[in-house]
Every structure is written in structure tokens, then in C-alpha cells.
Amino acid sequence: MRKSLFLMPLLSLTLAGLVSCSNNEEVAGGPGSITTNGLALVDGKPASYATVALRKVDFKAEHAVEENALVVADSYADENGNFKVEIPAEGKYRLTVLHDGVAYSKELTRDEFAVVGKSTAPDTVNLSATAVMAGVVDIPEGDTSVWVGIVGTDVLVKTNVAGWFALPSLPANDSLTLYFVTENYSKNLGEQSIYVTPRESVMKDYRSEVKPPIDTLSKDTAARDTDETDTLPRIVALLKDGTPAANATVALRKAKSMSSGYVVQNSIIESDLQTDKKGRFEIKWPTSGDYRLTVIKGDYAFSKVYNAVELAELDTLRLDATASISSKVTLQSSAEYLWVGVYGLDILVKTNNVGTYVLPDVPAQDSLGIYFVTADSSNSLYAEWKAYAEPNRTESLNPVKVLQDFEDGADGWYINTDSLNKGTTITPAKLAKDGVEYDSTRKSKVFHGKYKLANDDYAWALVGTSFERYMNFAVIDSVVFYAKGNGNVKLAMENWVTPSVNIKASTSWIKLSSSWKRVVVNPADLCVGSANDENCVTSWNSMMGGVKQFHIFAQDGSEFYIDDVILYGALF
């Protein structure tokens, strides 16, 4: 019998309603009083249009409805990060502020926060990077899943049949409480405290039954179920120590199959058949094509892609501990989330609003093809990549996007100069592909541009590209490229719409030489705005959620070379 989840003494499930953010108490604002009482900052910069929500400290979701977002907005900050929240005079509340992969969440009383109309200055909340979590809990007898939420927030997710769940966005630097509820959402199964640090990726085992390591299980189990006279030609699935994977789930899918319906699916696979008590199963193999065979037994799995000939030759499979994969994908600015699945499996999860996601309890020790599907009416394939995880671990994987290596020309890249300064010229004159040449030092193809700038401080020449859609680069890690030349270059991310509307975030000028230089640009380096003065508040933070152009400018010289432009922490 599977044990129920007793994490704390069972309590009656009291679910509080959404807290109203208005206060009926009338306050007269005197001289110097404020009309907003909060200021949201990220690294000292305004968290423009951040999501703001206030909940009672014991708030839990009223109904069993899956909610991937940490909180659903009560209100939003303005472009300068100012927001208004009225904490009731009595009681304690959790204030949560979210903005593009960073968050602030704390329990507060009215006395601990500025009051609209009375205070003379707003309280500042400093947002920090969120964490990701995968966990596993016991499933009560008779249930197939458990609901998991965070007290004082709106997030609510469901485990799979093995008890695994994922929380893609947890606020850091404050003690949080997870709560667990039965499948029919009628009985509280207890609570657990958790504290995470920024960018941490954690895996927690909340099962009440302490299971021995798989290699210490009794070998007698296999002996008891062995029938020496049984010679049926069946496939045998074994656990790591050789004991049978009795009553395990078996599924065969085409190697490139995707989920047929876009709803959250926490199970790795839906069963086609099960093994018997000796771990055996029979299946009619296909005669052609590539297929993924998956066998699941609790927290152990076997999954691999075979062609039809290889399938016909199988006899014994060995299961190993599963793993969790946390990573991210770059969203378009208009997207709230993407669907994330694995080719050949049934599991399907959602990213959060900046593309972070967790795939819990997936097969380890095999290359998994991960696919991303848009969350709009088209449900079209957005991106794909490969991932690999070791057993019994949470792998935090960072995608890498090669924006341009010039090996196949320079598709989509262009040349441009300041049209207001007629004395500015650049060669090639229009397409970057015309400047691609072989470089013996790098032993690869590179871009080579020659330029002459007019005698004007605002004259410019560039090479770069424009994205098809506005991109949310809020959680990219860095940009790396190689450069050499006899002047300076700078990297700029831009949202150029018309000559009168041009938002820019760029680096300062970077001095080049005749030797290749590896240039590393972190988001914190993109401090120069459109006015060409260092102002991080109005540069990167104001446009990171809507990047349209990627440009490399040249200055104070006559030629420059660029190669291998790479985005770390990006996938699109």
C-alpha cells in the first residue's frame, strides 16, 4: 500500500479568498504625502510595469484550477516602477512583485510598509532572480495525483502519477510554504517550508516513506517470481539491481511524435500496456521507421529511440532513476508562455512569462529532443533543442543561440550608415554577405567591413540584423563575439520603429587591435541609451522585453572584423 502524505499534522483546508487591494479607511493627504507607496527596482533600475499582488498570508487557491503564474496581477507598476498597494490595517499579508524573471515576495503588515496619503516617501522593493524547483511527494491510496501550491500566492500545479511536480518560478530570499491537497481538492495533506536563493535549481523529496537505494533491494524478489519452465519470447524490464520491473507502464511512440492536445500533461507517458509481475511484456513491433520505447516504474525509467530492426532484436531493458531538467527558451514579446514537450513522450508543461520551465521526472541517460510550441491559435512549432540529464538529479541547462558565424554567408544581416551624414560610407554597401571572407587566423569565414565616418559626433556605420518579431531578452545571460580592427566597436540592442522612436541599449566603445579579441557583453554592460549618455535606468531595463534589432557599430578607424556572434541563455 502506498502511504499517504503526512508532512505535518493534517489540518482542515481553509482557503481564503482574494484580498481586495482597496482600503475603506479614508486618509487625508497632507503636504508631501504620496499617492503611490511602492517603488520596484531591479539592480537599481525601475521594474517598469511590474505585476503587483497582495494576498493574505494563509491564502490558498479556492478551486483546483491549474495556475502556472506565481500570482495573477491585482495591479501594475508604472513605467518608473511606482505602484500602489493598500495593506489593510489588521492582519498580515504577502506582497509579491514580479517582472521578467525577477521577483520580490515578503510577508508584511501595514506598519511595515508606507501608507498612501500618510507617508512622505514610498518603500523600495528590490527584485531578484527567481529559482526553479522540482519535487516529489507521496500519492494517497486511491488517488492518481496531488495538488501543490505556495501559500500566499496563486500558483497551483498537479503532480504526475509518481508524485513529481515542477514550480518554474519561486521568489528568492524569503521563507515560503508549500501546501499539498488531495486529487479531489478536499483534504489538506500538510505543508513544507522552503527557502531558495536567486537562480537556484532545487529538487526536494517530500515522500514520507524512506526508500532504500535501488541497488540494495532484495535479490530474492526476482527468485520468487522466476518460472524456470517459462520460455515465452517476451521483453523483460528490470530495475537497476536486476529485480523485475513488475506492473511497469510501457509505451511506444513515433520518435518525432508530439502531444496531440495542448493541456498540461505531467505523466511521462500514457500507458499502452503494462509488464507482468516478472517484468515481461509482449508487443507487436512496427516493420519500419524510428520509435521511442519507454518503460516507467515509479521513479525509474528506460527510454530510447530505436529503428524497427533494432526493436525486433530487444530482449532485456534496465531502468534507471529519473531526473529533472530546468532551462529556458526566449519568448517573443507578445507571448505569455510556450508549451514544452519531449519528442516521443507525452509529457507537456508550460513556461512562465519569461520562458523558464521545468520538466520533472523525465528519463535520464538519453538525449531528449525538446520541442516548444506557441500558445496561440496556430499551435505551431517555435523551437527545438537536445537535452541530457544524469539519473536522480536536477539539471540546470543553459541554451546557446549562434546568432551568426558567417560560415554560410550572412543570411539576414545587413550594413547601414547614418543617412543624415553624406560623408559616411561603408563597404560593402548593403548586404553583410558581400563582406564575408576567409580568415587564416580563425580558420573560418568572418565579416570584414571598411568604413569612413563624416566629421560629426553622430555619424555612424553598423553591421547587424533585425528579428522577425520583438523578442523578450529579459533573461539572456550574455552576448559573446570576436572582433578585431583599427578602431572601436560597440554592441547595441534596439527597438527602432521610426526616426522619432528609437529605444537603444548599448555598451560603451570597445577598443580593437590587429589581433582577434573575445568580447563578452553582460546585460549590465548595456548602459548607454539613445541619448548616448550612460543611463542604465532608461536603457536596457526599458527595452529588454522588446528587442527588435541587434547592431554592432564601428568608430574611430577604417576597418573592423566580426565573427561568431553567440547569445548565451537564449533559444528561439
For the structure shown, list the relevant keywords.
43 strands; Immunoglobulin-like; 7-stranded antiparallel sheet; 3% helix; 572 residues
Please tally the helical runs, counting DSSP H or I stretches of 4 or more residues. 3
Ends distance: 46 Å
Task: Please summarize the sheet with the most strands.
Answer: 8 strands, mixed
Would you identify the CATH architecture of the largest domain? Answer: Sandwich
> What is the CATH H-level superfamily of the largest domain?
Immunoglobulins
Q: Uncertain spans, ≥5 residues at pLDDT below 50?
A: 1-32, 212-233
Q: What is the CATH domain class of the largest domain?
A: Mainly Beta
What structural class do helix, strand and pairing data support?
mainly beta
Q: Per the principal axes of the C-alpha atoms, what is the gross shape?
A: flat
Cα Rg: 28 Å
* Total strand segments: 43
Oligomer type: single chain
Write down the domain tally.
3
* CATH topology label of the largest domain: Immunoglobulin-like
Mean pLDDT: 86
Secondary structure: helix percent: under 10%
Beta fraction of the residues?
Answer: 35-45%
Can you walk through the features of this model?
This protein is mainly beta. The protein folds into 3 domains: 1-209, Immunoglobulins (Immunoglobulin-like, Sandwich); 214-323, Immunoglobulin-like; 403-568, Jelly Rolls. Helices cover 3% and strands 42% of the residues. The chain is built from 3 helices and 43 strands. The strands form 9 sheets. Strands 1, 2, 3, 4, 5, 6, 7 and 8 form an 8-stranded mixed sheet that branches. Strands 31, 33, 34, 35, 37, 41 and 43 form a 7-stranded antiparallel sheet that branches. Strands 32, 36, 38, 39, 40 and 42 form a 6-stranded antiparallel sheet that branches. A hairpin with a 4-residue loop joins strand 34 and strand 35. The protein starts with 37 loop residues before the first strand and ends with a strand.
